[in-house]
Write a structure and sequence with these properties.
The chain is mainly α and 287 residues long. 76% of the residues lie in helices and 1% in strands. Strands 1-2 form a two-stranded antiparallel ribbon.
Length: 287
């Protein structure tokens, strides 16, 4: 083997070792949730003085006790359904507003479009803890207390600013001549916005959907502020309230809930990871 071949083999070995390290780092939380969700309580809470106990394997046979607690003694299925209702509604509102808004600022507003886009983006950076008090007043005036409608109304205030900025950046990567040719062929400006532009920025729209889906799934502050009935809670609110009772943490059931809610997110990211990264990188480079 020549020195060049040896150097190439070492580089490939280092690359594979780094990839394996990242894979283990990314996969370990899922593995920990899995074994914790199916461990018996005595296996979970064994003392550190027991040197024969290995925390990252099943020392006792697995159990479904924590899963039965999650599905049988809490409203977890209803919380999942509530979350899906909110997610679908917020995603639809965000896409319906962010795509035309991003197009208008990128194509029609000239030099002021970029400045307005940055101003809109900066509103996304305002911490939710500063806004839930005025939002609570608004929800009270509209009579939406303790309803999923309050979350559907408030969450787009967080998703639309960032997604509008993201769509703007992605549209700048699309040649204007394509839309100009569509108008020469007989499309109106409105038809270009509604029918042509979305087809040109599919990765950006998928990025908007995944970002909105993730944000709504994990949001806690507004859900805690606006929802008080157990049957109307979302997953991010209902799980900690039901499974953290004073200083008692039902770790097995908590990890089961985290596992069952993180699997859909992992599947969504895995299906759209290429276009998701493309959407963010194009927005970052061109925005």
């Amino acid at each position: 083997m020549t020195r060049r071949d040896l150097r190439r083999a070492l580089k490939r070995t280092g690359l594979y070792a780094a990839a394996l390290g990242f894979m283990l780092f990314a996969g370990f939380p899922f593995y920990w949730m899995l074994i914790t969700a199916f461990k018996q309580n005595r296996d979970l809470y064994v003392g550190a003085s027991d040197l024969s106990h290995v925390p990252w394997i099943f020392n006792d046979p697995p159990t479904l006790e924590h899963v039965r607690l999650l599905f049988g003694q809490t409203d977890f299925p209803r919380w999942v359904l509530n979350t899906l209702v909110v997610v679908v509604a917020v995603v639809a509102i965000t896409v319906a507003v962010a795509v035309p808004a991003g197009y208008s600022l990128a194509r029609l507003a000239g030099r002021w479009g970029e400045r307005m886009g940055m101003g809109i983006f900066f509103t996304y950076l305002i911490p939710p803890t500063l806004l839930f008090v005025p939002f609570s007043r608004l929800i009270s005036l509209l009579g939406l207390q303790n309803s999923l409608g309050s979350l559907i109304l408030i969450y787009p205030t967080m998703t639309i600013p960032f997604c509008t900025w993201l769509v703007m950046g992605f549209l700048r990567s699309v040649p204007w001549e394509i839309e100009e040719q569509a108008m020469i062929d007989g499309y109106s400006r409105l038809a270009v916005i509604l029918r042509v532009a979305p087809r040109l920025i599919v990765p950006g729209i998928l990025t908007v959907i995944v970002f909105t889906f993730t944000l709504v799934m994990q949001e806690f502050v507004y859900a805690l502020t606006f929802i008080s009935s157990v049957e109307k809670m979302t997953v991010s609110l209902g799980v900690p309230i039901a499974l953290v009772r004073g200083d008692v943490y039902h770790w097995g059931a908590l990890m089961a809930a985290a596992l069952f809610t993180s699997i859909p997110l992992a599947v969504v990211y895995n299906l759209f990871i290429d276009r998701f990264i493309q959407g963010f990188t194009m927005g970052a480079v061109k925005g």
